[in-house]
Write a structure and sequence with these properties.
By secondary structure, the chain is an alpha/beta fold. 50% of the residues lie in helices and 15% in strands. The protein has a seven-stranded mixed β-sheet with strand order 3-2-1-4-7-5-8, sandwiched between helices. A hairpin with a 2-residue loop joins β10 and β11. The protein is globular, with a radius of gyration of 21 Å.
Length: 379
């Protein structure tokens, strides 16, 4: 087969996979009112939320947990230090909601190189109920937060997940992060679930407690540097499933700089490469870059206008993503087109970054994806 035909087929394959992933997500995830009714026989649920420092939307994300439309739940806030600056705000909110079942646990139990997992350990031990949600500090819980996660459970389900959906961007780079989270990562997550290889994502995870208890409890998540990668492997080993909610939860972004966005997503790229290398390799085809270049080359080789070909490919791909955002109720604004272009320029750069580099910083702590260094640090 000649090179032009090979590149034409590659281009059509990437376009087809993108359109298919859009269709899968639209079929599973539709915008709806956040009014899912709590079932009468709904089990009690524990919510563990690790906290560290004050973030742009801390007050709103904290207060939301106290106003969930669910019959019985507890909130366990986990902090590593008595001097954490979030504590005065947290205490104020708790005092304003005296009828809520909540606890504040402070201490640093170092069982891994993952500071978030270390912070959550005490919460898992204190949790009273058999369904436990691990919820990141910047996740905004809607009123039907718990029942939405519970509704995704089936007989073979070990864990239900909601990836973050970016909202309220206030800078160009926050728009770019919306483009990465909402119209790219989310649809590939739904695509993976559709073919039976769902992945955990640490933003919002509801566990059947027994699944982790069978392998030693939450400490088992220290088997990998990323707790969601460890969760995925533990669940697959037990021949169980990870399922996604029908409508993912919001993460308000506010102000984001290029450094914020690049450091976060390049870190995730390095973690994916280290924990799932065979799944990471095809990511070189992510976004529109490879499709546009291969399609333009094939068009030029066959005597057609490569510029028009590239524009047609971009129009098709971005129109599908805009349709996805509209159907799912995701944010669209004045910078959306530019943010999609910037995202697709960044994706191949971050792919190469993920291949070449091991070290990163998270919450000011230096970390690495090299297994031997992690073992040494914990030894």
């Amino acid at each position: 087969m000649s090179a032009p035909f090979t590149f034409a087929i590659l281009c059509m394959f990437i376009i087809s996979m993108n359109i298919l992933s859009v269709c899968i997500m639209i079929n599973k995830c539709r915008a709806r009112k956040r009014t899912m009714v709590c079932p009468e026989n709904a089990p009690p649920v524990s919510i563990i939320r690790p906290l560290r420092g004050v973030e742009e939307f801390s007050r709103e994300t904290l207060e939301a947990l106290f106003h969930l439309d669910y019959n019985k739940y507890e909130i366990i806030f986990c902090l590593q230090s008595e001097s954490d600056p979030i504590i005065p705000m947290l205490r104020e909110i708790i005092n304003n909601n005296p009828n809520c079942d909540c606890a504040v646990l402070i201490g640093d139990d170092k069982i891994s190189t993952n500071p978030k997992l270390n912070n959550c350990l005490k919460g898992w031990g204190a949790a009273k109920y058999d369904y436990i949600i691990l919820s990141d500090s910047n996740a905004l819980a809607p009123a039907d937060y718990i029942q939405t996660m519970l509704a995704a459970f089936k007989e073979d389900t070990a864990l239900t997940v909601s990836m973050p959906i970016g909202s309220r961007p206030l800078t160009l780079w926050a728009y770019v992060e919306c483009a990465i989270l909402n119209m790219f990562q989310a649809r590939w997550q739904y695509g993976a679930e559709a073919i039976g290889i769902g992945f955990a994502q640490g933003k919002n995870m509801m566990w059947r407690r027994e699944v982790l208890d069978r392998v030693g409890g939450i400490a088992a998540l220290s088997r990998e540097i990323a707790e969601d990668a460890a969760a995925t492997k533990i669940i697959r080993d037990q021949k169980m499933k990870i399922r996604l909610v029908d409508m993912p939860f919001e993460q308000p972004l506010g102000h984001r700089s290029f450094k914020d966005v690049y450091s976060r997503h390049s870190r995730w790229a390095r973690l994916r490469r280290a924990t799932f290398p065979w799944h990471y390799a095809p990511e070189i085809m992510n976004g529109s870059a490879v499709a546009v270049l291969s399609g333009a080359y094939a068009a030029w080789s066959f005597g057609y206008d490569p510029g028009l070909s590239a524009l047609s490919i971009l129009t098709l791909l971005y129109s599908a993503e805009a349709l996805l955002a509209g159907k799912c109720g995701f944010y669209l604004g004045g910078y959306t087109l530019l943010s999609l272009i910037l995202r697709d320029l960044l994706l191949p750069v971050m792919f190469v970054d993920g291949l070449l580099f091991d070290n990163f910083k998270w919450h000011g702590e230096s970390m690495t994806v090299r297994e031997e260094d992690n073992a040494l640090n914990m030894g």
